[in-house]
Amino acid sequence: MAKVQSSNLGYPRLGEKREWKKALENYWNHKISEEQLLSETKELRLHALKKQQDKGIDLIPVGDFSFYDHILDTSITFGIVPKRFNYEAGKVDLDTYFEVARGNDGAVASEMTKWFNTNYHYIVPELVDAKPQLTENRALFYYEEAKRELGIDGKPVLVGPITYLKLAKGNDDFKGLLSQLVPLYGQVLKELQDAGAKWVQIDEPYLATSFDKEELAVFEAVYASLKAVAPSLKIELQTYFESLDYFEDVVKLPVDAIGVDFVHDHGESIEALEKFGFPEDKILAAGVIDGRNVWRADLDAKLELLERIAKVVPKDRLIVQPSSSLLHVPVTKASEPDLDEVLLGGLSFADEKLLELVALTKALNDGDVTAEFADAKAALDAINGSHHRNNAEVQEAIRNLENVEVKRDLPFAERIKLQHAWLQLPLLPTTTIGSFPQSPEVRKKRSDWLKKVITDAEYEKFIETETERWIRIQEDLDLDVLVHGEFERTDMVEYFGQKLDGFQATKFGWVQSYGSRAVRPPLVYGDVAFTEAITVKESVYAQSLTDRPVKGMLTAPVTIINWSFVRDDVPDYVVANQVGLALRKEVEALEEAGIRVIQVDEPALREGLPLKRSRWQKYLDDAVYSFKLTTTSVKNDTQIHTHMCYAEFEDIIDTISALDADVISIETSRSHGEIIETFEKVGYDKEIGLGVYDIHSPRVPTTGEIQENIRRALKVIDARQFWVNPDCGLKTRKEKETIEALRDMVNATKEIREAYKVIK
């Protein structure tokens, strides 16, 4: 009798200790050769596959590995390289691959944006003048490697052609491009079939978004064509991150298995399954383990869900898997032995999730899982019953929110006059977004301090010295509003997680954000409470060094929870409001200490939008409320800034205005100024800084390029509203390029001011 199988959809690339990141950066910095890079990353890749094999996963993904990003991999596979990189044809070399992502001296990097509603960034394909060709069959390479090296008959993973094109720029001729791509996908599948592959996973998360039902005909035609080319290769059409609007139609598409998210679906997937049934000729790959969060699964509840599913889909046509790739979680909690025992027991990283999948699969196959289920229940009972999740004071404050005022005393038009009166800034004021380069010396000093190699006093003195040095650099550059540089912070979210009750930082809980950039999302495991001032000391010290205004720098509630692993026993908006109440006290403490320009960043607001438009308004209303809960208790002449980055803003321009921040800075250079088109249509009545150069590329922009970006913005934004700043924080950049780029930015601004000098 056939058994239920377990499957994985993707595994973290970083390595347990960020070995992948280190290899990439060593290559970029010319410390290792390409041969060494390939060798080191192969070792990491095979180690990850071996772990999945040893833990008993039946269907192991291959080809989910990447040197940067899986969407960029898809572009390279089909020779879709922007013309400015001088690519002609054939296999794309590794340096060109990296240049598309990072830019070079003569060409700007391709745009980068969020992967659906996650904090992972992908490189946006550019399809203008694209002539798709199959340059290399990456899926086949990784399939054969796994089979040869480890005896794993893996499941190659591809990004589906429809999702790929939907995420691209220059896709106006969608049907024409699709007609060129599908035969190339067919060639990939045919070669996999000929090599002996039994399964292929094709990811089409676009199916979990809101779209017109007529588009399903495109999926029908594409997958009928692909199935015909490789009839003996089983296709798992994988969806994730949401439920399916057209469940009854999607499950009938001409593939062998349909992957459905039963975690982030608001309970709609099981309801649709029970209502519409499931085709008798297909396998259901049920995503029941959360691929995006780190909390231990309630195995009893998951088994109950699977038993409901099994009443509709016989067990011999059922696969148990995560809700999405495990790319979005850390590798293993075994690297966190120092965590509180109760908290550690409640965690499940990638490796632990594999064991949960195996346990559930074993249970469905009538195996003995008594010990596994008992252990999970005890761990969950312990964390849910802990005092961390039962803070009476915080819960009382949340119940009394109706008594908290969330509105500034004066409207923007009146309070901005008070702010201008004391700030006395020139036209087109210049500033930065917050962070300055975290040099090797900064990182080493922090490491030495954490290891107690140096004393608290020595570390504090170093931070003060570095802060003063950068205050002087900013004054020398002639920036108008300064920042302290954030040298004491490892990450804009993690830092606050280290200072607020209810949060816990990890040591090796790294996840990929973009390229080699890794972050350690804090764990929001309990009720959130303010205990003491977080940023006041550093901000006040920086302000004492200069007569120019220095911004206080905070991270706003929605970004904190979107970039954290948030407890899953209460709704996200409750956690956001807890954070908002805590940060409200921090904002008040900054103001009381004399900091009168305070930036409260919400870069992740747009990325957290639900994939279904029907869920947008509540999310946006909740986001505005938590932001205003944080910021609206200040005096009218205190200027509130916020910052957002790398997203499509046109859909939420009204929400941006509703935040009621006095100044907002938004990325625009990497998207080549496209956000400006939004302002051409709707306008904006507050002050705004559109990032005038891309900080995610090591390339230093020219003064002319920056002026071009400024002038384009000034066609639709009044010069009296406009601030000049980089796209984002400068933490990841090197000092020399940072200073050169900022000098170009200030010089470009001064030249343009001359043309506008009659404006008051």
TrEMBL record:
Q: Where does L-homocysteine bind?
A: 433-435, 486, 601
Signal peptide positions on this chain: none
CDD domains for this protein = CIMS_C_terminal_like, CIMS_N_terminal_like
* Molecular-function GO term, any one: zinc ion binding
Residues recorded as binding Zn(2+) 1, renumbered to this chain, are 643, 645, 667, 728
Family to which the UniProt record says this protein belongs: Belongs to the vitamin-B12 independent methionine synthase family.
Descriptive protein name: 5-methyltetrahydropteroyltriglutamate--homocysteine methyltransferase
Native source organism of the sequence: Listeria weihenstephanensis
